[in-house]
Amino acid sequence: MILLITGGAGFIGSNFIRYILKHHKNYKVINLDKLTYAGNLENLRDIDKSYKTYSFVKGDIADRRLVNRLVKGVDAVINFAAESHVDRSIIDSSDFIQTNVVGTQALLEAAISAKITRYIQISTDEVYGSLGKSGYFTEKTPLAPNSPYSASKAAGDVLVRAYCHTHKFPGIIARCSNNYGSYQFPEKFIPLMITNALENKPLPIYGDGLNVRDWIYVDDHCSAIDAILHKGKVGEVYNIGGNSERKNIDVVKIILKKISKRLSMPFSTSLIKFVPDRKGHDRRYAIDSTKIRKELGWKPGYNFDKGLDTTIDWYLKNKEWWQKIKSGEYKRYYKKMYREG
Ligand code: NAD
Ligand code: DAU
């Protein structure tokens, strides 16, 4: 099978490329990535060295000519490419609309003319909006995105849906909850808290810290996409979640405890700093993943404790990776956010 994977130099895309090449030795992967601030070829250094079946192309999914060329002869397209950080979309949503909407449309047009057999849109549970204290997002929950980021992702989803309906396009949409794991850019909550703690920097918690996210270890998201690629039904939506709801404040306290234990020194909760809330901050996400479990036989392999242990160990072992990021582009962004210094 030949796969065109977009956004493969980012967090989930790079983990997926590693996963798919390990589990399907005869597959060929073309990775198309624009290398924005979030794209990093360091994430794939081991793959680039050891797999002749892997190739990288630097480029934009919205570049119709390039995408038309790349998609020829490909069996399936998996679209991870996106602007992915909610806070950035609140500052300026232009790149979000350009990549997550216009870019998705360009990919869909190219995929139609190349007659590919499968297209997977990597979407998010955020398209469903926010939950109160109870209830879960199912695939039938109406779309109600609250941030410019999630609105742009929802627009991508309805485009895929429309192409399936109008053109009998072989599209499938995957909506996953909050991922964490290796190679996650340290602007996102879990890697930000781990790396700030290791640098003895404040741990900024938005609002009252009681917002809830449903965490899933990135390998489990990858195995779910693998199941969708091989067994998913065209035209369907599949929710993916790890059944690990946690309040933000509790996640930070567990991280501090785990780091203290590993380094045999106390990392105090005094590093926690409550800061003004994110605008329009969604209160709670929780995924009902019954459909993918029942229909495709998928289940997660990690609980939150095991996933977080693995993640913290990775950030401890790979200081150079995240220190490089934090001292460059990330630092400029952080200054813009007025949360440091
Ligand atoms: P990320 O920001 O780490 O990576 C995004 C990648 O896309 C980067 O490598 C970037 O260079 C590339 N990219 C951006 N614009 C591009 C363009 N125009 N053309 C080509 N490449 C481009 O994001 P992530 O966290 O790995 O998320 C990947 C996908 O999964 C996104 O679609 C996101 O919406 C979705 N998702 C993320 C999570 C999560 O918790 N991180 C959860 C559910 C779904
Ligand atoms: O639910 C899936 C989504 O999860 C993905 O679609 C997005 O791409 C991904 O970024 C993520 O969105 P969130 O907004 O939930 O993730 P983030 O890591 O930005 O924040 C997680 C929670 O932590 C959220 O309630 C906001 C809070 N937070 C975040 C940061 C960066 C803080 O309290 N302080 C922070 O500094």
CATH C-level category of the domain at 2-180 and 215-242 and 279-302: Alpha Beta
Overall mean pLDDT: 96
Ligands (ions, cofactors included): nicotinamide-adenine-dinucleotide, 2'deoxy-thymidine-5'-diphospho-alpha-D-glucose
Question: How many beta strands in the DSSP annotation?
Answer: 12
What is the general shape?
A: globular
Order of helices and strands: EHEHEHEHHEHEEHEEHEEHEHHHH
Query: What is the CATH topology descriptor of the domain at 2-180 and 215-242 and 279-302?
Result: Rossmann fold
Note the gap between the termini.
50 Å
Largest sheet: 7 strands, parallel
Radius of gyration: 19 Å
Estimate the helix proportion, in percent: 40-55%
The share of residues in extended strands comes to: 15-25%
Q: So what's the oligomer here?
A: single chain
Can you count the helices? 13
Q: Looking across the biggest beta sheet, what order are the strands in?
A: 3-2-1-4-5-6-10
Computed structural class? alpha/beta
Q: Which homologous superfamily in CATH is the superfamily of the domain at 2-180 and 215-242 and 279-302?
A: NAD(P)-binding Rossmann-like Domain
Level-2 CATH architecture of the domain at 2-180 and 215-242 and 279-302: 3-Layer(aba) Sandwich
Low-confidence stretches: none
Kindly describe this structure.
- The chain is an alpha/beta fold and 341 residues long.
- The protein has a domain at 2-180 and 215-242 and 279-302: NAD(P)-binding Rossmann-like Domain (Rossmann fold), CATH 3.40.50.720.
- It contains 13 helices and 12 strands.
- The chain has a 7-stranded parallel β-sheet with strand order 3-2-1-4-5-6-10, with helices on both faces. The chain has a 3-stranded mixed β-sheet with strand order 7-9-11. A two-stranded parallel ribbon has the order 8-12.
- The model has no long low-confidence stretch (mean pLDDT 96).
- 2'deoxy-thymidine-5'-diphospho-alpha-D-glucose (DAU) is lined by residues 84-86, 124-126, 177-178, 188-189, 192, 204-206, 211, 213, 248, 278, 285.
